[in-house]
Amino acid sequence: MRRLGLCEQPERVPERRLQHCVSVPAAAGRAWKVDDQGASVIRVNPRTNRVVRRISVPGCDNPHGLLVDSPHRLAFVACDGNARLLALDLKTMKFTSSFGVGCGHS
């Protein structure tokens, strides 16, 4: 298993941990992880295993899941504690949208 410092290659990670790590091929030079303790999205350089950038996740209680839409340069962060889904523009590194999801969302 190839280690990426803060996360492992998703195809090798047990399913229960997939929501915590998303990576892009090493050739792209990017890997992404949700830091649920620090309420941030972390960009990791998979070649050096170093944190390149940390982006605070505003209005998100317990960031839990992450999905990267590479063709559209977007990332979606699921907030487990307040039933929100946030959209992060990977070009500007700014959150552009917030959606209520699930039962009892606000």
Written account of the structure:
The structure is a single chain. The protein is mostly beta strands and 106 residues long. The chain has one domain (23-100): Thrombin, subunit H (Beta Barrel), CATH 2.40.10. It is 0% helix and 44% strand. It is built from no helices and 8 strands. The protein has a 4-stranded antiparallel β-sheet with strand order 1-2-3-4, with no helix packed on it. A hairpin with a 4-residue loop joins strand 3 (40-45) and strand 4 (50-56). The relative contact order is 0.16.
Number of domains: 1
Reading the helices and strands in chain order gives EEEEEEEE
Assembly type: single chain
Structural class: mainly beta
CATH topology: Thrombin, subunit H
* Helical residues, percent: under 10%
Give a brief rundown of this model.
With 106 residues, the chain is mostly beta strands. It has a single domain, classed as Thrombin, subunit H, CATH 2.40.10.
SSE map:
Blueprint: E1 21-23, E2 31-35, E3 40-45, E4 50-56, E5 63-69, E6 74-79, E7 84-89, E8 94-100
Antiparallel strand pairs: 1-2, 2-3, 3-4, 5-6, 6-7, 7-8
Properties at a glance:
106 residues, Thrombin, subunit H, 44% strand
